[in-house]
Amino acid sequence: MAELTIAANTIRGNERAIGLVETNYQSPGNHGFHRYQIIYVIRDGRLAEFRRDMGVSENFKGINPMNIPSLLEHTVDELMFLADDFRGQPKLDVHELLELDNFKLV
What is this structure's pTM? Predict the structure, then answer.
């Protein structure tokens, strides 16, 4: 049986984090999809998550969901800075990166 992740009501910028995820979820009350920033931290020796509603997902068109692992190497502020920086980058084209269009079977 899977364990429930506890909620972190507050986070501090200088505390170490496990990771940061940004993705789109249905908002409470079925008011459309919103973009959420989820930051994973340790509370009482257990994994806890802090969620921040970033607004309507339509404001983030063309921006992929992101997952930035930290494993307690970075602080909350550092991960949020990285997320802001990555969010401004153009969408990653995996086919172009891996040159799949030029791939030829021999």
Answer: 0.80
